[in-house]
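**User:** Here is a favour to ask of a fellow structure person. Please take any protein you like and set down a full record of it. No explanation is needed for now; the record alone will do.

**Assistant:**
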Amino acid sequence: MYKPSNTVYLFLAITLLCVVTTTNALRKPKAPLIYPMSSNVTNVHIVAHTHDDVGWLKTVDQYYVGLNMSIAFAGVQYTLDEVIMGLLQNANRRFIYVEIAYFMRWWNEQTPELQEDVTELVHNGQLEFINGGWCMNDEATTYYDDIIDQMTLGHQFLNQKFGVTPKIGWHIDPFGHSSAQAALFANLGFEAFFICRLDYQDDAIRLADKRMEFIWNGTQSTPQYQLFTGVLRNHYCTPSGFSFEDGDDPIQNDPTLFNYNVQQRAEEFVAMALEYASHYTTNNVLIPFGCDFAYIDANLYFKNIDKLIAYINANPQYGINVFYSTPSIYTNAVNEAGVSFSVKTDDFFPYADNEYSYWTGYFVSRPALKGYVRQTNALLHVAEQLLVTSQSEIPSVQSTYFPQVEVLRQAQGVAQHHDAVSGTEKQEVAWDYAMRLSIGQYAVYEALDSVVGQLLVGSGNQSVPSMQFCPLLNESSCPALTQLAQGTNVPVVLYNSLSWSRFEHVRLPVPTATVYVSNEYGAVSSQTTTEQDGTISLSFTAEVPPFGFASYVLSTSAPQDSEAVHAEAHATAVTAGDIVMQNAFISVSFDGKTGAIKSITNVTSGSSIAVTQEYLMYDPSTGDHSSGQCSGAYIFRPVSQTPSTYTTTDPKVTYAPGSMVSTLTRYWNANMIQTFRLYANAYYLELEETVGPISIADNKGKEVISRYTTDLHTNNLWYSDANGMEMQERELNKRYSWNYTVVQPVSGNYVPVNAITYLQDTTKNQQLTFVTDRSRSCASLSDGEIEMMLHRRTLRDDGRGVGEPMNESTQIVTTTKIVFHGINNDAQSMYRPLSLEHNHPLFPVFTTTQQSPSVWSSQYRGTYSPLALNLPAGVRVHTLQWLDGSDTSIILRLQNIYELDGQDTVDPQLITLDASTLFSTYSVTSITEMNLSATLKLSSFERLSWKTNTGTWYPNNGSLDNFTVQLTPMDVRTFIITLESSI
């Protein structure tokens, strides 16, 4: 994301683009010269690299091809051409590459001869893949499913083409770092994690204390996933004065020519290297040479580095040993030094690069894109599962439909980039990301049309129905359902991508208030709710088996084979008197005049909390005070620490009580609508909010929040999840691993929330939990209070490179969150499954028929599940997908969804599962435990052990007894299994 300010020598680049290279100019790679490590001098590891953003100022295609050079002088294909040429020319050179989304494109364009040369470069260590994901993903706004998927996508490619798996995490550009990311990297088998962006206060302390390297144990649930972590000394770009592509003086080492400067330049480098090294505890220091889209003229870089290395190493008086290296070589050297490191247990959020600039705005930037990415993640898991489980009934389903699913895989992988789902890209690029996801979405629909239709038929002889999809259900748009108005019956197939049975409320937009629901057993209780604007929704409770579907038929005629249970509710205006929504589990009180929530009672425990909620807004800085720092795509900097009112106190309030669902709506205008829903037999309250477009008619940007104030005593603590995984304790104005000076009381306390946040009162044994449907941000700025940002629009750029304000002029965001009030002792066993269900909702597929519901249900499958039984409580089959290139091997990931929180007395801490009994339609014939990306046998590698200030840490790789798997809290274990159809 960072761009140096030096002027690029365009004539060099133009010359480069005019050069035609052929494989005849290349020579076969030789084994590189290994400079021996020295214990007496400082070993300077020069790491040549390019940081290739997978979209940001330009789209991913434009960056690769080299279009729009006036926007950003970058063409990844030329960089890779030149780097490979440079490596082949000199066996002593090394280079690392990270973003496989680009490398795969380039690889597929090369001749077999050049591919062979590149393979040799990889095997002899000159070209090393570091990180190796599809992109370098963001760490604040990414869901853990997506992180795992995009890393697997990249690693599988590298394993297939080169037989290698990266061993180092290299996240030198994300804007803050999460504990879950470190744990997932350790689960991949990584030996180390290199990062760059630290809070300016934290960075200064670490530099002074020589704590730039440490062991990161960010999760108490999976301590086996600790990871050596190193922080780069001074950003990830080439040190000042040596960025040869950007106009810094080249090395002139020929004394017969004018401008001879090698000694001067060497001494400048040595002074810089020794300053870098003074902040680290061993005699090794890593110095990156490269930056954003660097090495488009690789010869210019390599040739000058060669001269620098040769001269310094020929002059031992400098006391340093300089050589081309990689992060893995550096890690091994540090490990061999045998020094002891401190242990870090928290994360690196929020991040600030100076006292006025907290990068907490991007937690919410482009909330519509964030929601879309979460939706397509759920769709991808549906498709991956069905390609596996349907194979026993639909021959060749995997080979037939894999290409469609691969389109969404790759689009989803690109969207995890730290300038994609983060919302920090240019508007044109945001549209490009969304378009790619849409193309992938509809490609998957093509596959699911056939697969779901054939599974509905089963072994019958009837015709395969044509299926329809409704991606705009959240906008009350579904063409299939509109046909109910013409008397056409609409079967809906609800797929459950989770590995437990779900009894879940389904809500669908319908064109008429008289709609009946039935399944293979007869009538199903249902309700329609008519709002005052005439929109109608149908609600019913569906029972759907794990990893399978249940089908229901919607009809405007009452079923004849049983009594139809159908109710109607109509929203009416409310002007006075309290409103109480209540079922057997929860009671919620509202003010009848304003519709404002007043209290929530857990009927089961009898505990109650007073709660108020309001919509407020922060006025974003436009740079007209203090430092001149603006709020923008990255940075949240409010003008005042006290927000102002965003909505009036007198909205139009309607209430529609019903037997299946009761609905209270607060309507201010088309740009601000709040709807509460309480379903029968639900232990939570559903809250839907429509926000936007944010008006700037007053020429002011706005950062809109929802604030909840309760009577809980929280000791200024609150909790937010790390990428959907373990909860992180947060304390107002506090950093647990360094002394924090409060400068920005609001933005300095905002943290990311991917899926879950809560307040907790340990004295009352009460907890108020919120489950979100996309990434956003939260903060607790007063005791018993929590606020979440919903949407933002700024009118200035924040100066961090994107060059545009965060000014989405048309975005309407409809977001749904779950509000749950319970006691601490069983809260996790409630909110963990609920969060997964909320982020992996039942997936509806529609068709139409003129047959009666009973006839249709008698001809087509009512339910389908490939699992032999419900799995033990707390187990999630996280992944079920074909291993690329195989028609018998499957990647299976199993997760214990609960964390080790020390409070919940209900959730299981250790779960045992026999994997051979998972499926009813398959026999599991073999099982092999792998690393997280399924590219390395767990038994084939050993991670390094490290000395810490608490003793020596030895990694634990788990155990597998035949088919029996044990899952400790929050662990994700990965296996390759072979299946044999039992049908």
